[in-house]
User: Fold this.
Amino acid sequence: MKITGAEVFIGGPGKNYVTLKIMTDQGIYGLGDATLNNRETLPAAYLQDYLIPNLIGMDPRNSEDIWQFFYRGAYFRGGPIAMAAYGAIDMALWDIKGKLAGLPLYQLFGGKSRDGAMVYAHATGADLADLKDSVSSYLEQGYKAVRVQCGIPDMPNAGYAVPDEKSAGADYITDFSGIRPKVEIWDSDKYLRFMPDALAEVRNHVGPNVKILHDVHHRLLPREAAAFAKAVEPVGLYWLEDPTPAEDQESLRLIRQHSTTPIAIGEVFNSIWDCNKLIENELIDFIRVAVTYAGGITHTKRIVELAGLHHIRTGFHGAPSHSPISMAAQAHLNAWAPNFGIQEYLVLGSAACDALFPSDHVMENGMFQVSDAPGLGVDFDETEAKRYSYIAGSHPVVRLQDGTLWNY
Ligand code: CS2
Ligand code: MG
Assistant:
């Protein structure tokens, strides 16, 4: 069996999804997602200029050797752009493997370990009243877990993932007015004074059974993060995400020494080498990698298995930048992983997105039910794809009030 060609498409409804389609001499094709939010053209260029010309003629069934060929063969290894490109190839090769076997991917991993996978939604509010409305609307839809982000009084811009204006549930990440980022202002002292009480109010609002998550988005210093994790213990968070930037992993010891609040990290990791020490030292509770920029199913599965040895559960990244293709790859891992925790879920649900990526994966009552179709169980409608093209956009950047650049 041979790979005969591959194509890359960029675009989608409100997103620059990077979709890879690999064709074979047996008429079977596979799909992969290389979307790297706000840098989408870069994995696409790597695929087009280097990886696809090398792929042609290879046997698509040898997904492990192809992964090693690109990763080890590159000499300058890893990084988010390369790993997103390898990730897309790897997903597509697993899709082909599943279609050849006539089995959904989770069967190739070891079958189902659960009926459905719990997901969490994003509730945001410009203020607490707005946030509580947003949380309630998700609970009414059957969600059992909600990430809560709230505007902070007296902060010129509201804070991470919070709309400028009152509007329940709006997601606030990419500004598509161009590649120059908007500037948000941050003040850790105001955040630390406000957020523990705000989270306690959310707990009172939802009662004991709802899982509450909160994302600090890398903005605190280690000592501040330790104090915050301790202060929010009575809230009983399901997890506290990215309390500090992930570069300084030793700093997580300080948080651990002061608090039992569960810590979730990993959405910016690209490989097992970014998190093996964190996992082996049991400094985190949830690993947040994404199959897209952690090198696809082959490499992510390795991370999941290492995490499982250390009581660490999965909580794969599922920001709206992931297309339904990588979300399907994660859904198959979620169905199988003995150490599954939860899945961030923001992608499907719009008619335009479902038309571009038809599938019978189902999300209802806050649970993701994986499809039994062979392979990934997602298709890509190339006629629909013609409606979209790349639109330049950017995340905000963050500065302190005196102008110092901070962590977005
Ligand atoms: C966020 C992300 O989903 C999350 O937890 O931290 O939305 C993140 O801001 C984006 O993926 C950045 O592109
Ligand atoms: Mg996050």
